[in-house]
Amino acid sequence: MKRLIRNLGLLLTLVAVSVMVTACGSQSLASKNVLKTDQQSKTVTWGVKADTRLFGLLDTKDGKIKGFEIDLAKALTKQMLGKNAKAKFIQVTSSTRIPMLKNGNIDAIMATMTPSPERRKQVSFSDQYFLAGQSLLVKKGSSIKNVKDLNEQKATVLGVVGSDSVQNVAKVAPNAKVLQLTDYAQAMTALKSGQGQALTTDNGILYGMSIQNPGYEVTKGSFVSEPYGIAINKNQTQFRLAVNQALKQVRASGEYNKILHKWFHNVKGFDYEEAAKE
Ligand code: GLU
């Protein structure tokens, strides 16, 4: 009888421990099959930008995040899990996106993210869904017309922490001073207040800023190619393959082009057909 009570006590302890372990995310993430879990909940949780016009921007009127990446994420979710499936959006910045994916707060990152060799060491990427290129945003009439001017004039260039744009510009224009802000909204405010002579990131993002700030323009051409991929945790191969399959299907059905056109056809000077290249 005593032994039975002791065994029962041990069993209860084991149950309590396993409940605690399941409750704290990291352990469950390692064993979690994201595709299966999402199929059961009929939901994909995406990490998206909320400060980036055209890609992912919070509309303060209705509290919804809107943009090309949001519409594409919704289309991929339905393609993968069925018509009634839901895409859930969680805001990330260039510096929070990888930690949030690794912690299991999100299933995937669709946030203007380029699969650099450094990042590939930490996470996996889907096939390319957008081809951007790094450029500069300057005040109209600025003496900075390209990255060479930036270097020669030893100008201050603004960027965002966690973006590869800040590393790229430091390589291409080593004489320029790079000032890093937390997100793109802050970087734009810094440019307007004269803390730097140029802002650097991908052309699509810069065009979004210039629409909102007509006194500023994107300089011609790009100096680094910046393709975008969806980042997924390394152990989630099934989910990554499902994302790639869905991406192929939305491209083939014409839905991808519809979304691309919706967000970029009015953006003067931006060759969005080039961006659609696979
Ligand atoms: N494509 C670049 C990157 O992945 C810049 C855009 C961003 O900051 O998200 O870092």
UniProtKB/TrEMBL annotation:
UniProt entry tagged with the keyword tRNA processing: no
Signal peptide: 1-23
Keywords on record: Signal, Transport
Keyword Transcription in annotation: no
InterPro entries according to UniProt: Bact_solute-bind_prot3, Solute-binding_3/MltF_N
PROSITE patterns: PROKAR_LIPOPROTEIN (PS51257)
Superkingdom assignment: Bacteria
Family listed: Belongs to the bacterial solute-binding protein 3 family.
Protein name per the record: Transporter substrate-binding domain-containing protein
Annotated organism of origin: Levilactobacillus tongjiangensis
